[in-house]
Amino acid sequence: MPTKSTAVPKSEEAVAEGLDEAMIRLVVHAFYAEAREDPVIGPVFRAHVADERWQGHLEKIVAFWCSSLLGTRTYDGRPMPKHLAIPELTDDHFRRWLALFRHTVNNLCPPKTAGLMIARSERIAEAFRINIAMHRGEDLTFRPPLTREPYP
């Protein structure tokens, strides 16, 4: 996550340097091509999203990110229940997802866009892991935030 002295770029700043649906589509497709083959998170994706549904799933993810970053309101799904239903999800999966995502956006996006997408992905990952832990009845009292894993 950004440090206190580093401000997270705003969507308007990212749009000014080129963030649009085409860039989001490029990031999503590049990231998930790598993620689906990753030895840590790939098996989870393959187990829960069948090959014949994969392209449709990618389109939902593009719509999610467009809604989140561009305010398009094209996403109408509910991702939390789907993730709550994956019993094997652990912090290791979230750390790897974030490492791969950071690597992808840093390679494909201008700096402010990458910063915005990384900050948003880290907030999403934290929200998901906390909701999953609560759903599982885990004690959250002393749960530290995720640590960053380096790119493999």
UniProtKB/TrEMBL annotation:
It comes from the Bacteria. GO terms for molecular function: heme binding; metal ion binding; oxygen binding. Coiled coil: none annotated. Keywords: Heme, Iron, Metal-binding, Transport. Pfam families: Bac_globin. This is Hemoglobin. It comes from Allosediminivita pacifica. The lineage of its organism: Bacteria, Pseudomonadati, Pseudomonadota, Alphaproteobacteria, Rhodobacterales.
